[in-house]
Amino acid sequence: MNSSLKSQKKSVVVTGASRGLGLAICTQLLQENYFVVAISRSLSEDLSRLCEEHKQSIAHISYDLADLNGIHALCKSITEAHGRPYGLVNNAAIGLDGVLATMHNSEISTLLDINVQAPILLSKYLSRSMMLNRTGRIINISSIIASTGFNGLSVYAASKAALEGFTRSLSREVGKAGITVNCVAPGYMQTEMTSSLQGDKLESVKRRSPLGRLASPADAASAVLYLMSEQAKSMTGTIMTVDAGSTA
Amino acid sequence: MSELKQTILTSMEHVALIADCTLVENISDDTVLLQSGLDSLGFAMLVAQLEEELGVDPFSEMELAVYPRTLGEFVNVYSNALS
């Protein structure tokens, strides 16, 4: 793209960009005139369409965040190709549903690598560029499961609680450099990741919500957009819950 | 003074400026890094600045964690990484 046009836009790195909440975040960032570096294992049809519609404002990188050793090189290549990023949205996560007692150790390790270690390493390397710019935004996608608990999601819950603890302490560490660090904790959303939540379980979640429905990926993406904005410059170390009131 | 050491000192001055730190005078190889005037965030910024300038982050590439104590040791870490 035209380099002067690109330099006028703030660039934001979004992981897990191919579907669900990640895709909604990319869509809203593009609407608000950010340059998006979308990371996902593969290019979904929806993300491919978004890239086609916004050729000048989005770059897709195929990367599997389970490869922790390559994250430094990934961040270096992002900075070299697109300049110092303004924002990072750690959205990529896997949610393995299952009883802990029978969950394979390799599945526990993979979940913790992708949901906890990868966001920490991405924050480590990309916050450096933000420090040099004296401004930046790191937004970690947590879940209400971090504080409420759900049968069959103990390891996922542990990973999200870890991310919230990480957010609070990192906000204290990098605040002096003008970087804010926050979490968005969505409730149950109808995405591919939560597709196992059907029937009575789904109806029960909807019934418990004061608004009588689930929050949508677009609702949670709007919270991310707010935290990314200049208007949120005084918010750091917080957890924003977007769950249609189900944890109220 | 080696070109590398000069690059590191120039970067330290740049980082001190943007990190709102004041460097001590007469920094030498024996200057203890934590007494140089840069705080821990300043050192993170220095590593970031040097990665942009030199293209390497030796600390990430090392298998074991290494924390140089003096400027001389810090310069050696970069010298080894670039050799």
Helix and strand layout, with pairings?
The complex is a heterodimer of chains A (248) and B (83).
Chain A: H1 3-8, E1 11-15, H2 20-31, E2 35-40, H3 45-53, E3 58-62, H4 71-82, E4 87-90, H5 105-133, E5 136-141, H6 145-148, H7 154-174, E6 179-186, H8 199-208, H9 217-228, E7 239-242
Parallel strand pairs in A: 1-2, 1-4, 2-3, 4-5, 5-6, 6-7
Chain B: H1 3-18, H2 40-54, H3 58-61, H4 71-82
Helix pairs in contact in B: 1-2
InterPro entries (chain B): ACP-like_sf, PP-bd_ACP, Ppantetheine_attach_site
Domain Carrier (chain B): 1-82
Protein name (chain B): Carrier domain-containing protein
Oligomer: heterodimer
The succession of helices and strands of chain B, N to C, reads HHHH
* Apparent shape of chain B: globular
Give a short account of the largest sheet of chain B.
none
- Quickly give the structural class of chain A: alpha/beta
From the N-terminal CA to the C-terminal CA of chain A, the straight-line distance is 46 Å
What's the CATH H-level superfamily name of chain B? ACP-like
Tell me which CATH architecture of chain B applies here: Orthogonal Bundle
Domain Carrier (chain B): 1-82
Pfam families (chain B): PP-binding (PF00550)
Keywords (chain B): Phosphopantetheine, Phosphoprotein
InterPro entries (chain B): ACP-like_sf (IPR036736), PP-bd_ACP (IPR009081), Ppantetheine_attach_site (IPR006162)
